[in-house]
Amino acid sequence: MLALHGCFPKSLFPYPIGTPKLETSTVLCKDRILKVNCCNPNRQTERGIEFDIGGAFYRHESSTGRDLGILAASVYRQSKGGLRVLDAMCGCGIRSCRYLMEAEADFVLANDANDEYRDLIVGNLKQVERDETRWVVCHSEANRVLTERYLQRDFFDLIDIDSFGSESMFLRSAMLALRLGGLLYLTNTDGYSSGGHRPRHSLDAYGAFVRPLPFANEIGLRMLIGGAVREAAVLGYHVTPLFSYYAYHGPVFRVMLRMNRPKILENRDYGFIGYCNRCGHSQAFSWEELGKIGCSCCNSEGSRQGFVVSGPLWIGPLHSSDHITQMLDLAAEWGWVGNGAGVELEKLLKHMLDESDPRLPPGYIKLDEMTRRAKMNGPPLRMLMRTLQEMGYAASRSHIASSAIKTDCGMAVLTKLAKELVSIPQS
Ligand SMILES: C[S@@+](CC[C@H](N)C(=O)[O-])C[C@H]1O[C@@H](n2cnc3c(N)ncnc32)[C@H](O)[C@@H]1O
Ligand SMILES: [Zn+2]
User: Fold this and answer.
1) 364-427 adopts what CATH topology?
2) Which residues are placed with Cβ below 5 angstroms of ligand 2, an ion?
């Protein structure tokens, strides 16, 4: 049995050509499945699908991340007319079940290195889809199964990597096994790196030197996308995020990327983020500006005055507004949102839609940080946002931090405006 904590040594990849062919699924006899179903106390339900979690790692809190993946997969299938999914770390197989049933995938390959989950995964899949030509279960190390599929020229439309810790070691093999225009759904739970507490580690895994920033959880997403942009460039591809999602339980960072060939002169949105410890302003800048600029808000220069730089990272929009709109429409069509249903999912997708404004720079400003610096009371967030928008600035909430604002208005102007709003008596 393999070690199962997402920490296979890099020396295992690339695999030599000629690795054994994948096994196909074994069929469990009917009465055995029934026995598992009746007697197992680990029964769960997600979006009406009943399944067994056995001894596999399963978190109910991750269901929103799965909802988002299913919506994006379904939007893809509707536009391309087909969907083949490789669920590289499937656990009990809930994602595979949902890709088959809800996203109506034509075919799903459900893989988990732990072969003790075989009966569990097969049992769950059989319950949602009796046609066994539509799914296969296998138990390989993820890099191995991805590389084998690539060598067989058997490409997938969506590859889901739901790893523990960092996903970076699976990026290359996943991109090779992905069809052009296909989707890569990545998960990362490495909160130490995004928090700037392990800059050398983030440099190794993502090629980004990350320092502590007040919007660390957004940095986690930008680090993940930036690492994928770099890996894709090595292979001659380009990836862009369709959505990015930070979830509090964990922390958990998830991004859905679309992979294509780069267009000539395409802006890779791959650069640096500076944060000024003196005034709290943050800004993105390009490679050409690296080392030449300081804080554009209070004019402090260099790290001596506290202008710290992290990167290279993804500095473009976290989501595609077109894609989020399509996901929202689909969620409404399925009754997942609207008419009082799915309030949290609807709120999340709407926040993502607002956040996808390309004018918004990376990062967010926590109102309590701003008011602490300025030694003032803060105005209501809604009022501040509305006023900024009326003045022609881009302004949005962040799906990551509830009392934070994203805006292209500099810190000095924002603080002055907030002070003015507080001094206006409210009716
Ligand atoms: C986070 S859990 C997956 C949860 C599942 N996707 C879900 O949504 O419920 C990670 C799974 O990856 C498997 N795993 C860990 N390292 C692996 C590797 N290198 N290759 C394949 N599977 C691996 C573990 O056995 C575990 O079941
Ligand atoms: Zn400054």
Assistant:
1) Phenylalanyl-tRNA Synthetase; Chain B, domain 1 (3.30.56)
2) 276, 278-279, 281, 295, 297-298, 300
> What does the alpha-carbon distance between residue 116 and residue 129 come to, in Å, rounded to a whole number?
21
Residue 96's CB is within 10 A of a number of other CB atoms, namely: 29
- What is the CATH number that goes with domain 22-260? 3.40.50.150
Q: Is the CB of 13 under 6 A from ligand 1?
A: no
What's the 29 CA to ligand 1 centre distance in angstroms? 26
Q: Which atom of ligand 1 is nearest to the CA of 58?
A: 9
Q: 13 pLDDT exceeds 60? A: no
Q: How does pLDDT run across 162-216, given as a tens digit for each residue?
A: 998 888 999 999 999 999 999 999 999 988 888 888 999 999 989 999 999 999 9
Cα 303 to middle of ligand 2, angstroms: 11
CA–CA separation, 388 and 390 (whole Å): 5
Query: Which residues in the chain are classed under CATH 3.40.50.150?
Result: 22-260
Measured at the CA of 95, the angle between CA 91 and CA 100, to 5 degrees, comes to 130
- 66 strand-pairing partners: none
